[in-house]
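pasting Flavorubredoxin for the record, 400 residues
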Amino acid sequence: MIKISDSVYSVGVLNPNLRVFDIVMRTDFGTSYNSYLVCGEKKALIETCHDTFFEAYLENIREVCDPAEIDYIILNHTEPDHSGALYRLLELCPKAEIVCSQAASIYLKNITNAKDFQAKVVRDNDTLDLGGGRELRFINAPFLHWPDSMFTYLPDERVLFSCDFFGSHYCEPRMIDVHITYPAKYQVALKGYFDAIFGPFRPYVLKGIEKIKDLPIDYVCTSHGPVLTPGGLFPQVLAQYTEWAQPVKNDKPQIPIFYCSAYENTQRVAEKLREGVLAVLPEAEVPLYNIIDHDMGLLQEKLGCSDAFMVGSPTINRDAVPPIWELLSHVDAINNQKKPVLVFGSFGWSGEAVPAIISRLSLLKLAVFGEGFKVNFVPDEQDLEKAVALGREFAESLKK
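structre below
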């Protein structure tokens, strides 16, 4: 337990040994499940925690008050790392009223599986009087990073409870920014968290910043990672979020070609497609990336920043090869929706790779160009001429 301000206590728990979060995120520095108790004449608990850590969480709450004294449980977000302990906590907080957004109230019915579940729904700028001069204000923050997300603000003590916004999967014993021992590691965690959690929602990040930029803030109480302060890291983190959320503007058309090639046959097609694109768009950047020769993080970045792209794979055992599927698993389906893509490859027996890739990209709502292009075994001169022509057609379509 850490006292943050006159009436705010951090009662969350640390998980320093966590190395994978939500299946897809590496967490080399662990994480924390932050929860805050605000004490006026009435008591409000903001967020709960992962249910695995319930006993430790309960001990922290009891350092401040008996759980039965809690009047409100405020859920800024209902993902299980925020709400997992709720169903057990409610048994110990008989008078507690749940406060959340409209979307959260719907999700919580299925998260708790409680037939008689009730919640007080709050909307943008609604307030909740805790007495003793403590009043909470609620700020809608949809898609930061779920539709249900909101911020909670305590004006009297200038505390913003920012949910996942400005957070990080980072863990040290004293979770306030001025006490961070390894600032370089924190920065790695901060950027990785932004990319994974908020990368798909950059326009909403800018809207979220706009909503809080004029608030007097002494403490930013995040749901993961250290509490941020104006005299510590908050100004820097705010500037970084603003920079990272800016829309990408390319000076030249970026049309990368990603491929794998067992015997250079798919590679030859890739080179000819590139030749065709450059014949129509000589100013374009059309780099060739053999996927197995490059870091997946770099390829993900290049794909995300592209104006269009191509992807090619040989067919092995009636499928595209695993590195191709790994790359496609990193496609941001939100920000790449309707992005033009051309699929190609070589095959020996059956040729399923190209239609399989097209099916996947179509499900992600990308704009697949044509029916793809595939060659049997080694491309001959006619195949290579067709590849050049297809590259030209693809480039022409990008000019429309």
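The radius of gyration is 25 Å.
The longest helix spans residues 381-398.
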